[in-house]
Amino acid sequence: QMHLVETGGGLVQAGGSLRLSCAASRISVSINRMGWYRQAPGKQRELVAAITSAATTTYADSVKGRFTISRDNAKNTVYLQMNSLKPEDTAVYYCNCVNIWGQGTQVTVSS
């Protein structure tokens, strides 16, 4: 069965960094568009970053210059490096491939 497992969330102070990982099973991260989304309380889920099979990346304006999406084909894992974190980055972060979603990982940024 295809699934995605996110890890790496946690509590961090504003200005800090976290790296999220998304391990894929029965899904190849190298040939699929992989995305990171987030959902804050009371808000809609939004795209944070995505990477295509051609390694083209896309970022939400709110995270450009602070977040970096990457992948390790050998480990079949996608990463989201988050630097200069802000309280407004607080959300549950989800990994996505087509119609497959992970369970999410909580990121909390304190001011």
Strand content: over 45%
Q: Using DSSP, what is the number of strands? A: 11
Structural class: mainly beta
Low-pLDDT stretches = none
Mean pLDDT: 97
Helix content: under 10%
- Globally, the shape reads globular
What is the overall number of helices? 0
Assembly type of the chains comes to single chain
Straight-line distance between termini: 40 Å
For the CA atoms, what is the radius of gyration?
A: 13 Å
Largest sheet: 7 strands, mixed
Briefly say what this structure is.
Helices cover 0% and strands 53% of the residues. With 111 residues, the protein is mostly beta strands. A hairpin with a 2-residue loop joins strand 9 (91-97) and strand 10 (100-101).
Secondary structure: elements and pairs:
Blueprint: E1 3-7, E2 10-13, E3 18-25, E4 34-39, E5 46-51, E6 57-59, E7 67-72, E8 77-82, E9 91-97, E10 100-101, E11 105-110
Parallel strand pairs: 2-11
Antiparallel strand pairs: 1-3, 3-8, 4-5, 4-9, 5-6, 7-8, 9-10, 9-11
